[in-house]
């Protein structure tokens, strides 16, 4: 465990967000939005606002008091990416985050380590290296 007391995916997400924040502070160029029709972008923003309004209405009906949101910001209602990160930015491939070498996966029953992880850590068995049959003709 580290000083934050976080392990696994939570630790990865925290480190990733800290690095993004630091790189954003030190960056000199502005982030550009993807070129797309303004009507399409407006539609994306409107659908997001409709979802947020529905979420807030359901909370109000259920007697839940939600925190206030800063002016000009969207309420975060779940999902892996925030609206600011997603709308208007082109993303061809999914960003997989930091490459932190970890072993196994954490479940409620403890750490589960697969045979593949064990083999990857231990390396190949001795004597299997370089025993090819030569050039096949």
UniProtKB/TrEMBL annotation:
Upper lineage: Eukaryota, Fungi, Dikarya, Ascomycota, Saccharomycotina
Region (Disordered): 26-46, 109-137
Native organism: Cyberlindnera fabianii (Yeast)
Coiled-coil segments on the chain, per record: none
Top-rank taxon: Eukaryota
InterPro entries tied to this protein: Ribosomal_biogenesis_FAF1-like
One term under GO cellular component: nucleolus
Name of the protein in its database record: Protein FAF1
One Gene Ontology term from the biological process aspect of the record: maturation of SSU-rRNA from tricistronic rRNA transcript (SSU-rRNA, 5.8S rRNA, LSU-rRNA)
């Amino acid at each position: 465990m580290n000083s934050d007391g976080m392990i696994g995916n939570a630790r990865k997400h925290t480190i990733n967000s800290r690095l993004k924040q630091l790189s954003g502070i030190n960056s000199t160029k502005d982030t550009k939005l993807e070129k797309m029709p303004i009507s399409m972008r407006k539609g994306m923003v409107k659908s997001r606002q409709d979802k947020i309004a529905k979420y807030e209405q359901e909370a109000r009906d259920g007697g839940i008091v939600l925190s206030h949101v800063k002016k000009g910001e969207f309420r975060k209602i779940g999902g892996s990416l925030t609206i600011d990160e997603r709308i208007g930015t082109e993303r061809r491939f999914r960003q997989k985050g930091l490459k932190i070498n970890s072993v196994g996966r954490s479940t409620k029953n403890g750490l589960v380590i697969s045979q593949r992880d064990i083999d990857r850590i231990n390396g190949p068995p001795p004597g299997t290296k370089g025993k090819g049959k030569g050039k096949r003709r």
